[in-house]
Amino acid sequence: MRPLMNYGVLCMSMGFLVEEGAPIVWRGLMVMSAIERLLRQVEWGQLDYLVIDMPPGTGDVQLSVTQNIPISGAVIVSTPQDIALLDARRGAEMFRKVNVPVLGLVQNMSVFHCPNCNHKTHIFGEDGATELANSLGVEVLGDIPLHINIREMSDKGQPVVVSKPDSPEAKAYLKVAAEVVKRLPAPSPECQEC
Question: Cα–Cα distance between 184 and 27 in angstroms, integer?
């Protein structure tokens, strides 16, 4: 299988393996088979980084990925509200249990900026990820705001870092990316699977 490319980034998704609009109602073995296909049968070529976006939780998917490929680190993404932070803590603890370093936390939808008056509202609470990061002994890699530009550009398939590169929301994504890269180990020149 060949991955799709958009804005210079290769991409593959389980959603590409089913008809548009069809639900993915798969039992554990089917999910594991799909993950294996995404990891081993996609013609990735030479990559700088392979980012795997997983749903929240600590189930078969997360465990299978950690057991089947070498992972340099995990980034935990959560909104700041208490209920989401419970899942984030479980995810961080699961990665630690399987010896995957937790690189840090990203606080998503951290603050809403009113597009009319620029008033800031912490809809989901304030600094929840900071408190969790402190208790886990890791850092917050950045805060991604709840902003209409992110939603609109995502719906159009245009990353806000491309469509509005000088905006504060684009800079927030770039900061997170830079913080993640700083925490990743440098790949060794002889390693072809890193």
Answer: 33
Fold of 67-183: Rossmann fold (3.40.50)
User: How far apart are the C-alpha atoms of 194 and 40, rounded to whole Å?
Assistant: 14
Q: Collapse the DSSP code of 149 into the 3-class scheme (helix H, G, I; strand E, B; otherwise coil) and give the result.
A: helix
For the whole model, what pTM was predicted? 0.86
Let me know: does 1 contact 12? Beta carbons within 8 Å. yes
**CA–CA distance, 77 with 57 (Å, rounded to integer):** 12
Spatial separation of the C-alpha atoms in residues 29 and 183, rounded to whole Å? 33
- pLDDT tens digits along 65-90: 888 788 999 999 999 999 999 999 99
Q: Is 166 helix (H, G, I), strand (E, B) or coil?
A: coil
Quote the Cα angle for 137-139-140, to 5°: 135
**DSSP type of residue 51:** -
Query: Do residues 145 and 172 lie in contact, with contact meaning Cβ atoms separated by under 8 Å?
Result: yes
* Residues composing the chain: 194
> 139 with 110: CB under 8 angstroms?
no
Radius of gyration of the chain (CA): 18
Residues 162, 13: Cα–Cα separation, whole Å: 21
Query: Which residue ranges make up each domain of the chain?
Result: 1-48, 67-183
